Amino acid sequence: MRLSRYFLPVLKEAPSDAQIVSHQLMLRAGMIRQEAAGIYAWLPLGLRVLNKIEQIVREEMDRAGAIELLMPTIQLAELWRESGRYDDYGDEMLRITDRHKRELLFGPTAEEVVTDIFRASVKSYKDLPKNLYNIQWKFRDERRPRFGVMRGREFLMKDAYSFDLDAEGARKSYNRMFVAYLNLFARMGLKAVPMRADTGPIGGDLSHEFIVLAETGESAVFCHKDLVEMPAPGPDLDWANGDLQPLVNQRTALYAATEEMHDEAAFNALPEGDRLSARGIEVGHIFSFGTKYSEPMKATIQGPDGQQVPAQMGSYGVGVSRLLGAIIEASHDEGGIIWPESVAPFDVGIVNMRQGDAACDAACETAYNALKAAGKDVLYDDTDARGGAKFATMDLIGLPWQLIVGPKGIAEGVVEIKNRKTGERHTASLESVLDGLTKSKTA
Ligand SMILES: Nc1ncnc2c1ncn2[C@@H]1O[C@H](COP(=O)(O)OP(=O)(O)O)[C@@H](O)[C@H]1O
Ligand SMILES: [Mg+2]
Hints:
The protein is of the alpha+beta class. It has helices spanning 21-28, 44-63, 77-83, 85-88, 111-121, 167-187, 226-229, 245-252, 264-268, 320-330, 358-373, 387-397, 407-411, 430-439; strands spanning 32-36, 39-42, 67-68, 74-76, 94-97, 103-106, 130-139, 154-164, 192-196, 206-213, 219-224, 256-258, 275-290, 300-302, 308-310, 312-319, 332-333, 336-337, 348-352, 378-381, 401-405, 415-419, 425-428. Helix content is 32%, strand content 28%. Helix 1 crosses helix 10 (320-330), helix 2 packs across helix 10 (320-330) and helix 11 (358-373) runs parallel beside helix 14 (430-439). The longest helix has 21 residues, at 167-187. The protein is elongated and about 80 Å long. The chain starts with 20 loop residues before the first helix and ends with a helix.
């Protein structure tokens, strides 16, 4: 992408109502624009990151055996009456009436819809287990939308729903999601700690929130400090038949709870040096709730003994749009965002220090074409802005690598390559820099 033809409305200063750094940086970097309280337009740079995060979530869900579908944003009130949640949900639900006076709503979550889909066609234990997920916009009329995409009213969520014959199967489904979550957050460069959590309006008995520690987080959390550095298990597991319980136990054996579930006495029983009391951002939340929806909605299946039983269910959410904020909170400096390579909007930025200079232009074109041919996403700053302004923009938008081409260097046959994260700069021939960038898996 040539910057001169792109749409990147960067701002020098963050609007004063943006209180936390991720919100400020997303606005300054031209990633989002607020259209109404808690409702954002995703500008091109923001959309690129959103799509990358979405794709990582999708790959890890697929790996864990979940199956993608797409449910509508608009749902029937009738379905929510069946589960008994229509009245309970309160003012957070955006209720809509159509021209036939039918009551509709903009889905805040999709337990009812997915249960309706499931009950229409799955009748036998032989078809289980099933885990259906979608990545879809949700609407919750939050009382206090704030912090940009962190607490929006309209936001993108991955929500998965598992169906099993019995509690043992449901536990396995829960464990698959628990472990998949460890991997998917790790792939985005995040340390997300699973913590015992309250089940809230979704209901149920077993629940964990995945929390990224950050001073600006909305939740107070308490955990054993070893959990923070514990590495994710990685993809090479027997997802279909393996026993993931030991991986789950390894983590749940250590104390970790959100404020609602906090047990002061149990926490204080830990050696003082192991206690971590901090603030965190909830990026995912998993629930096991048995027959809470399948029973009233009559989603029954026939067991091996011929008996009809309501399906055992769980639901598993990831805040896809919130993750942009969480990643920025975890990875930035005074200059701006530092994207982990896996979610960066572009892999490399090319800075032409003297646009219009034949030798600089030619070197930049060579680099741009070679990197694109190697499958890299490249943003080429071909504008006639000053070098200093170009550097500031590149640092602000946080691309992992900057390739800097200036007249002095070109005269000597060299260019500069800068790593955004470490700030390290090297000078080398264009050829060897391109060689390094195109060969490295991650650059
Ligand atoms: N208002 C919101 N804005 C952005 N993301 C949200 C919002 N509400 C929830 N999420 C994300 O969706 C995930 C699943 O939501 P859920 O746990 O059902 O919501 P809540 O924790 O608000 O009850 C959360 O872990 C969070 O990452
Ligand atoms: Mg939650």
